[in-house]
Amino acid sequence: MRKWTRRAFIGTGTLAGGGFVLGVAGVAFSPSRHSVVSDDAATTGQLTTWLLVTPDNLVTVLVPHCEMGQGSQTALAMMAAEEMEADWNLVRVKEAPATDDYANAYIARAFGGSIPAPLGRAFDYGTYRFARWYGTQATGGSTAVRGTGRYGMSVAGAAAKQMLIAAAAERFGVSAAECKASSSRILHTPSGRSATFGELASAAAKFSVPSNPVLKDPDTYTIRRTARQRFDIRSKVNGSAVYGIDFTLPGMLYAAVEIAPVYGGKLVSVDSAPAEAMPGVKRVVRLENAVAVVADSYWHARKAIASLKPQFDDAGHGGVSTESIFAAFDKSLGAVPDTPKDAATLVTADYRVPFLAHATMEPMVCTAKVEGDRAEIWAGVQDPLNARSAAAKALGMDVEHVKLTNLPLGGGFGRRLPFTYDYVELGARIGKVMSPVPVKLVWSRENDIQHDYYRPAGMARFAGALDGNKMPVAARCHYAGGGDGESVFMPYAIADKRADNRDASHPIRTGAWRSVLNSQHGFFKESFIDELAHAAGKDPFLFRRDLMTDQPRFRAALEKAAAMANWSSPLPAGEGRGIAITESFGTIVAEVAHVAVSPEGALRVRNVFAAVDCGDVVNTDTAKAQVEGGIIFGLSAALLSEITIAQGRVVEKNFRDYRMIHIADAPQIEVEFIRSDAKLGGLGEPAVPPIAPAVTNAIFAATGVRVRELPIKNHPLPRQTT
Amino acid sequence: MPITVTINGHAHTLDIEPDTPLLWALRDTLGLTGTKFGCGISACGACTVLVDDRAVRSCMFPISQVAGANVTTIEGLAADGTLNPVQQAWLDQQVPQCGYCQSGMIVAVTALFKQFPRPTDEDIDATITNICRCGTFVRVRRAIHAIAEGGGGEHA
């Protein structure tokens, strides 16, 4: 494997068999949408994004991001093709291989500036955290389109077009200024001559990559801002898509595993005899924190692992429970935050949210083939480079000796991000024991639910004050369980806003869960502002809107969602509307939930209206799908899902006790986008945070009951009298 | 004792234990990996296949019970490479996101149409209990209605 050298990534290369590969030299952050390549790219740059033009006139876009349903591979190809003036029917997409050449580090360049004051909204903390994983090839933080697309793909497409034009001008003996690109051809209009991209590719590759190509005026877009079908859908409706769990090798064995139930626990002992006596079992493998059974089929491995009674220690955490964690939160939050002594009205409230599992539909899987000092790994991960490093470390190998092939993911939501590769490490270790025979480790759903990197549980203690005119003068909170400047930001003109982090550590393993800390704080702050509105005797929509005097984008989104929901129209008894708005990952989302509570106290979320300002939309259909999906994902958490802890262990085991909504529970959803002059925002996550408070605020409107603790299922709603 | 089963119109004789779930026989013995493993307790429906036109969650369905029956998997729905009306609607409406649950969802909806050629929302709510973590339910419902309105329900 060739070593990483900076020079190797600059410029173009000629493909065997003709055609060319184009890379974008380094990019720099710029406030302008049109100027994104730095002049010193050749010395500071790192190649990140590639386009292939082959003699058959196909443009292949190699995307350094995984596909987990978010559709960003297609959106990124659209961004490149748009600038290139490629015929969309002649565009293909491929996931870039897991090699250092494709590290998407420009995300760090784009976002990784200095950190502003903790309460400032100007900085996107979720992305900042993400950007610190410099040198990885990660997909997360809702960054693919707004990072890779804006700073990589668009520039690559524009540069390629310029090079193809230069090649055509040379071939025709005319001025480049007289040539233009259209539908994968370069045309010389005065003479009527033309040549395809494929015919020009080899000649184009000889030109140097322009350092500052001109990007198209958005008003001339023909591919972006339209609905394009995703490249991967056909394989997902005919069963041919090969996910990590579907990958097979000749002679491959299968592994099932049981992991120490308390995080950090070690395997003390296990009698392997019962499993060894079972059909198809090849070996019982003892690992530091787990025991695995390797067998000739997964069913044999699964049956045999159930026959074992391994003993694990509890790492000293056997006394930890949900109650003990929240008791520590409560203690750390201390007294209610101070508020002005002369306020006319004081409002206080505590809010709580539980740990949550990602519960991707495809459980964690890793196939490993270890031979001598080399290894090959196959998995579906959100960061193949970091996963490769994790495997190399587990195997004690040089990372250059490990090859990782990434496969489509059966869901990610943050579970397969960098530094969450326990399953890759386990798979690699089992593969090493069974070397040279390849082994596919498949986690059970129980493994998955009980050994996640959970969305942190959290708690917030708010105090707010209204003056004699019922105007809010203070909104302060103490929170435990995590938070940052973006997630605690309230877009309201309240003179005294403060959010203080109170540490209360616990040994439960946590990680990034779709929308990260915004999922907790969206519920906290948008519940509290609703409580302030009601304390002021004002309509919750108008109360918010009138506090958005210096936040025109928030105000526009809020007004749009209210208009979509026909906010002020009357509703029957037992029904109500709730509104909530958050900004995360550069995108503002306002949602209105319309709920009905039956005479028996059963809740139904009937409709959700979402107004979204992500600056501009690349693929109008997949953008909408992400908002629909984010609302459903957030609704499961709001209504039903929770991870609880007893004796240091996760109590929930599978989908019967870690519950998610079904189609019968899903509301009708309407989504509208607002085109603003803001830079591109993310879309994978921002629809999640507003839904829980929109629903609990609607429950309050319908019943007068304020739900301050999620999931809502734990809060009995009163029978309705009609 | 070998068990003979008919999968997607082809007879196979399998030398596996009779308690082996149909799911693992399909995936690991026959290499038909379109049918997915989600939970192993018949809760999520990712493993749904048709057994004589009935939707069955194959992760807890012993292979011995399908001896003599006709099993259809996602791979068997597109006869001669032509997508069935449900698959076609899923493509047209761009229903899948990660797609992992969609094999089971498509098979379950195919079975729904065998029961109800023009299903109401109530029929859908009562019959389709598959879990989709990406949250495609809005499009699943829309696609089902689009199939029914297009008259495809009789041919699913």
Characteristics:
heterodimer; A: 722 residues; Aldehyde Oxidoreductase, domain 4; 7-stranded mixed sheet; 19 helices; flat; B: 156 residues; alpha+beta; Ubiquitin-like (UB roll); 2 domains; 6 helices; 13% strand
What does this structure look like?
- The complex is a heterodimer of chains A (722) and B (156).
- With 722 residues, chain A is α+β, with helices and mostly antiparallel strands.
- Chain A folds into 3 domains: 7-232, Aldehyde oxidase/xanthine dehydrogenase, molybdopterin binding domain (Aldehyde Oxidoreductase, domain 4, 2-Layer Sandwich); 244-315 and 364-442, Aldehyde Oxidoreductase, domain 4, CATH 3.30.365.10; 458-714, Aldehyde oxidase/xanthine dehydrogenase, molybdopterin binding domain (Aldehyde Oxidoreductase, domain 4, 2-Layer Sandwich).
- Chain A is built from 19 helices and 27 strands.
- In chain A, the strands form 7 sheets. Chain A has a 7-stranded mixed sheet with strand order 11-12-9-18-15-16-17. Chain A has a 5-stranded mixed sheet with strand order 1-2-3-4-5. In chain A, strands 14-19-20-21 form a 4-stranded mixed sheet.
- Chain A is flat.
- Mean pLDDT of chain A is 88; it is low at 1-18, 23-49 and 105-134.
- With 156 residues, chain B is α+β, with helices and mostly antiparallel strands.
- Chain B folds into 2 domains: 3-77, Ubiquitin-like (UB roll) (Roll); 79-155, Orthogonal Bundle (DNA polymerase, domain 1), CATH 1.10.150.
- Chain B has 6 helices and 5 strands.
- Chain B has helices spanning 22-29, 74-77, 85-92, 102-115, 121-127, 137-149; strands spanning 3-7, 10-14, 48-51, 54-57, 70-72.
- Chain B has a 5-stranded mixed sheet with strand order 2-1-5-3-4, with helices on both faces.
- In chain B, strand 3 (48-51) and strand 4 (54-57) form a beta hairpin.
- The longest helix of chain B is centred in the C-terminal third of the chain and has 14 residues, at 102-115.
